[in-house]
Amino acid sequence: MVESNARPAIAKSPLSVILLADCAEEARAGCIAAWQRFLQDKQIPYELILVEEVAHDAAGASPPLVPIQDAKRVWVAFGSGAGTLLRAGMAAATCPLVFYTRLAEPFEPHDLQKLLDLIDQVDLVTGYRVQGQAPAWYRWVGGVWRGLVWLFLGLTVEPCEGRVRGPGWGRRLLARWIFGVRVHDPACVFRLCRRDSLQRIVLQCEGPFVHEELLAKANFLGLWMTEAPVSWNPEAGARGGQKASQSPCTCREIWELFRRPTFSVQAGASELANEHSAAAPAPRPG
Fold first, then answer.
1. Within a domain: 286
2. CATH code for position 206
3. What average pLDDT does this structure show over 64-70?
4. Alpha-carbon dihedral 244, 245, 246, 252, rounded to 10 degrees
5. With 0-12 CB in 10 A as exposed, 13-18 as middle and 19+ as buried, what is 54?
6. Predicted confidence (pLDDT) per residue in 16-27, tens digit
7. C-beta neighbour count of 96 within 10 angstroms
8. What is the CA angle 158-162-167, rounded to 5?
9. What's the Cα-to-Cα distance from 17 to each of 43, 51, 52, 161, rounded to whole Å?
């Protein structure tokens, strides 16, 4: 756990829950109902935002959609990437706290409480996927690795509560060693943020690397973040898989992100004003 500056308590504030509907149609209803039950039991104000792709017919009309009670629906064009879905969901969020996840992932809604318990101390909390108890050899290798990192780099790496699982090892290494994102599982799409912090970040990527991009830019802007373990059991909770229509993670967009990262106009104007103020000559007397 990182040591943080004092921040306004926000854990009990209204919550925007963004569900990225990138799974099969038949799997959505059960997932959405589980999230609604959890949020109603929490008895905190919330808005549920379902972001989904809609295909248009030859006449340009959308097919009829089954209504979902107490949910705000946001539609993007069929074939949109993960970045488009996430940007659309965040643009629709209005509450001080913003949480988002993918319906295709076998996450459990009750793990959101772990993130809420930490958000008062930081700007962003991200999950890392664990499955069961880590074996002894895994814990031993992790201890050796943390010792070497501390010895040669002077960095303290917090131990995992379990064995990190899930796809995306290549993206994890890329996020850690190229973009400096020092969390266990930057590809984990289970994330809680303060909305005012998100307004400083412009998401560029269209593919799934957009989730690592968010952490990288938050880190660059000096936002405080921490992480919490979340259960991940694909055998017990298959969601029908991610839609094939979504764009993959491409080297070209990652390279463009590395060369020309974009931030909000407000943040840029503030930084330029500070630089101009620091560089301005002192007024001459008399």
1. no
2. 3.90.550
3. 62
4. 100
5. middle
6. 999 998 776 777
7. 14
8. 100
9. 14, 11, 14, 26
